[in-house]
Structure formats: structure tokens, C-alpha cells
DNA sequence: GTCTATACAGGGATAGAC
DNA sequence: GTCTATCCCTGTATAGAC
């Protein structure tokens, strides 16, 4: 049970991830050095390699973790009821989830191109699963006659772009509260897909 | 009139800009080296400094140029007629202009944080002018009763995010033509702002 | 105008002491 | 588990020859 003096692997590991997330989000993956991450954690650069094999793994783990959290949370969302209700829940979920972790969102959308050839498809597949979830709601709504859209795939992309855009400008304590923003987006999205 | 042998300043300068644009768009500003740009142009790294004082100036010039082109083209757009017609023209203009230069768009939206403290506000001001142009159309439409929206500023941000998202997935020769995409977005945007 | 050569700082990652 | 020290590479930018 007793741990070696000075050993804090269980706490330092997460702190490395947190520092990397913070710095990648602020300055971009390519612009951040391992030395900067180490300084943020309060250790020497060499010590980082006890927690990650390399810089790329740090990025990949953070993006994969984010997408998995997103999909896991989505899976817990009530998927019953008529399409308009499902769509409304999706919109609120998306805005809420993304607004709660702006750094992870930012990294996940900006650093895709910095993934290696092996890691990229993994993240891409997770992202596509999320888009498909929205598209299925839209398709169900079109089939039921609740929505009217020429192309559900394109509409799904358009809506996700619109919703994710919130994180680029939303700031707690700004002109509008998150609840107000949610309200406005729900109304706008419903109208966009032709929900009466 | 005779130019020094080997002198091609008038042609090499633009080639440096083009190479920087291509590489910044593909790999990101921070990940691209001056050596890579030089290799793309076919000169040695040192020669680049005949055309730009430094790497940052390359980024700034390309972003400023892009935003100025955008605003200039927007200024030429017919701004007469009722708000729904104006909005439709704006949507078609935005999609068309952005789809025609995906690299410049990509750099302009991704590399904002890599601008220095002096350069950032310049680009930000240009961007805001563009957003304001859309917001004015929305406000005019609300005033005239053509549109229904709780917040024109937020709607403008939402629509621009949605429209700009097109450049992230649109590929010439894909499932839909640009004209089809435009059609669909025009319809979706009009509905989103409550235009009957 | 472009080249070669180079200065100098900083990058990622590893080795071995403690 | 973390440190110091270090390897080797690459980064931006400049100087001076041609």
C-alpha cells in the first residue's frame, strides 16, 4: 500500500494530460513544445516520457477521449418520442456538452490534421458516428413527415457546423446566457429543418 | 528594360505567397518551416527573405489579402431589393466565394491564433465588418417583417458558421454539385430566419 | 536575385544518476 | 518518478559571395 516517497504517478499523469490540453487549445499542437508542457506541470521535460510515449500520443489520447466521452454521453440521451422532441434534445445536448469543455472541442476540431496517418481514421470514424446519430433523427423526421429537407446528410453537417460554432464565441457572463443561446438555437434549428 | 539575368522577382514573389498558402493550409502555420516553403518554390531558404521580412508577415499578408478580397467582392454584390432577396444573394455569394478558394478560407479560420498581437486586431476588424454586413440584412428583414428572429447578431454568427462549414467537406465532383449545395443552403437559411 | 554557409535557439526524445 | 545532461535534428534568420 505504501507508495515510494515522491511517487505521484496517479496524480501527475492526469496533470500532464491537463497541461497538454490547455496548451494545445491555446497555442496549437505544433506550436507547443514538450518543454512547455513540462513547465506547466512543474517537472522536467524528460519526466513527461514516463506518462506518454511521445507528443502525438498525447494529442491522440485527448481527441479519442473527447470523442468517446461525447458518444457515451449521447448514448445516455433519451432517444424516444417524436423526431422534433429528439432533435430538440440533441441540440440542447450538443450545445451543453460542447460549451462545458471548450478546450477539448477546440483541439478536436483544429488539430485533426496533426494526427498521424494511423491515428486519423480512428478519430474520423468516431466523428462520423456522431454525425450519423443526428442524421438518423433527421431521417426519422422526414419519414414521419415532421421535417422537410432535400438532403439529410447535408442538413446534419450544416446543423453540426452551426451548433459547434457556438463554442468559438460563447463566453460565460456575456450578453446572453447559455440557456438563452440554447433556446434560440433550438428554435432556429427546428425552423431550418422545416418542423412546424 | 533589360532585367538582370536570373532576376525573376516579379514572378518569384507571388510563387512564395502561393507556396506558403498551400503549405499553411495543408499542415498549419506552426508546422511549416521556411525551408519547406523555399523547397516548394525551388529556391534556398535564405532567398525567401528577399520577399518577406519574416514568416509572420507571410501569414498576415495572406489573411489580410483574403479578407480584403472578400469585403471588396461583397461590396460589389447587389444590395437592393427586399431582405429575402438580399439574404439569398448573400448566401450564394458566401458559398461561391469560399468554395472557390478553400485554402485561403482554411488558413483564415484556423490560423487566427497564430497572428501576433499587432496583427490580430487588424484581421479581427475585417472579419467583424463581414459579419455586420449579414447582420444588417437580417435586421432589415426583421424590421420589414420578412424575417422573425429573437437575436440578429446571434443568427448572423450561426449562419456564417453553417455556411463556412461547407468548405470543410465540399469536394468538386462529389455527391452534390456546388449549385445543388447552394440551393439547399438557401432554402435552409431562409427557413431558419423565418422567411415564409 | 539567389546561392552557400552559418549563427544560434529551440525542438523531440533518450540515458543514466538519484 | 524525477532529475540532469545530452544527442541530434530542425527552426528562423543573417552575411557575404557570385
What does this structure look like?
- The structure is a homodimer of 196-residue chains.
- The first copy, chain A, is an all-alpha fold and 196 residues long.
- Chain A has two domains: 52 residues, Arc Repressor Mutant, subunit A, CATH 1.10.10; 139 residues, Tetracycline Repressor, domain 2.
- Helices cover 68% and strands 0% of the residues of chain A.
- Chain A has nine helices and no strands.
- In chain A, α3 packs parallel to α6.
- The longest helix of chain A is centred in the last third of the chain and has 26 residues.
- The first copy, chain A, is elongated and about 60 Å long.
- The N terminus of chain A is likely disordered.
- Chains A and B meet through α7, α8 and α9 of A and α7, α8 and α9 of B.
- The structure holds a DNA duplex (18 and 18 nucleotides).
Keywords:
homodimer; 196 residues; mainly alpha; Tetracycline Repressor, domain 2; 2 domains; 9 helices; 68% helix; elongated; disordered N terminus; DNA-binding
Amino acid at each position: 500500500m505504501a507508495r515510494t516517497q515522491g511517487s505521484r504517478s496517479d496524480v501527475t499523469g492526469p496533470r500532464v494530460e491537463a497541461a497538454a490540453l490547455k496548451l494545445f487549445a491555446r497555442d496549437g499542437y505544433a506550436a507547443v513544445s514538450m518543454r512547455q508542457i513540462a513547465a506547466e506541470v512543474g517537472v522536467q521535460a524528460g519526466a513527461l516520457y514516463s506518462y506518454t510515449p511521445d507528443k502525438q500520443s498525447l494529442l491522440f489520447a485527448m481527441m479519442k477521449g473527447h470523442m468517446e466521452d461525447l458518444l457515451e454521453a449521447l448514448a445516455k440521451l433519451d432517444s424516444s418520442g417524436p423526431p422534433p422532441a429528439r432533435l430538440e434534445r440533441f441540440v440542447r445536448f450538443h450545445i451543453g456538452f460542447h460549451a462545458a469543455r471548450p478546450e477539448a472541442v477546440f483541439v478536436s476540431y483544429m488539430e485533426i490534421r496533426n494526427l498521424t496517418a494511423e491515428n486519423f481514421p480512428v478519430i474520423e470514424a468516431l466523428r462520423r458516428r456522431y454525425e450519423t446519430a443526428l442524421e438518423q433523427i433527421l431521417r426519422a423526421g422526414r419519414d414521419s413527415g415532421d421535417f422537410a429537407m432535400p438532403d439529410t446528410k447535408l442538413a446534419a453537417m450544416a446543423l453540426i457546423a452551426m451548433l459547434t460554432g457556438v463554442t468559438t464565441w460563447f463566453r460565460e457572463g456575456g450578453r446572453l446566457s447559455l440557456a438563452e443561446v440554447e433556446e434560440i438555437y433550438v428554435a432556429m434549428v427546428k425552423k431550418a429543418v422545416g418542423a412546424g
